[in-house]
């Protein structure tokens, strides 16, 4: 099977994000509501065998990089077994994990031994009380312990995801930038996105990432492109002169990165999402076991992938060309 996963705009897709659950042990304010969230029945979740078969076929089509997401992926039992199986597939070179860090410290060694190569940990505040408010009950100490565990088992780079929110945590930009000076870590500032919102309420929390660069100027920090090329994502990376670490800017709204998108998404209930923002989905379950049919389905999904997600139009309340998804971020996998 020699087809390459290339869409109508010439973008080659070698990266698959796999959501293994829509459940989470936290309720972060930008990700899901405090209550009333309807989760998929467990029998609707793709099994490890099904995920393995999908990845095996995609590896034959040129997929080389995987990211395991949720919800919170570590609420899925025996995740180490899945990572071990996926790492054995010929052609798979990189397996990353996005986690809230609550459970990672106790499982770091097993996950690393299974084949985990990199990690992203969500950390939207460095202040314990505020972190608890944003996550609706999270314990920041457990997350900080997980960061130390990631260092201990040799994961590199360690990335911290910070969703900037106006009036919530945008006064901590300096603190996160200082962290990159003191430690070998990459802090990734992420713009608040209109994912899963059927109204314009998200706009009140939106902060353009130009704010981060403004803070560097105000502090008289000299900033240069970091030159880092690792990773799969859309982050533009920078380093403060003399810093041990770096910081990244992910601005899907103010400066979209669609022209270089190399990502496909597989939801926990078995749907291919060619674009994070739009509602288009293709269910894989009935095709598993037929390699050619499964490959054709992914090619069909790529054929409808739009050139851009148009989140900037949502910010300006302009008419959009496609139907935005109403799934929450936790239901998609980010």
From TrEMBL:
Transmembrane segments: none annotated. Binds 2 [4Fe-4S] clusters. Binds 1 [4Fe-4S] cluster coordinated with 3 cysteines and an exchangeable S-adenosyl-L-methionine and 1 [4Fe-4S] cluster coordinated with 3 cysteines and the GTP-derived substrate. InterPro entries: Aldolase_TIM, Elp3/MiaA/NifB-like_rSAM, MoaA, MoaA-like, MoaA_NifB_PqqE_Fe-S-bd_CS, MoaA_twitch, MoCo_biosynth_MoaA/MoaC, rSAM. [4Fe-4S] cluster 1 binds at residues 24, 28, 31. S-adenosyl-L-methionine binds at residues 30, 71, 122, 193. It catalyses: GTP + AH2 + S-adenosyl-L-methionine = (8S)-3',8-cyclo-7,8-dihydroguanosine 5'-triphosphate + 5'-deoxyadenosine + L-methionine + A + H(+). It comes from the Bacteria. One of its GO terms (molecular function) is cyclic pyranopterin monophosphate synthase activity. GO terms for biological process: Mo-molybdopterin cofactor biosynthetic process. Pathway: Cofactor biosynthesis; molybdopterin biosynthesis. Residues 8-224 form the Radical SAM core domain. Catalyzes the cyclization of GTP to (8S)-3',8-cyclo-7,8-dihydroguanosine 5'-triphosphate. Monomer and homodimer. HAMAP family: MoaA_B (MF_01225_B). Belongs to the radical SAM superfamily. MoaA family. PANTHER family: MOLYBDENUM COFACTOR BIOSYNTHESIS PROTEIN 1, MOLYBDOPTERIN COFACTOR SYNTHESIS PROTEIN A. This is GTP 3',8-cyclase.
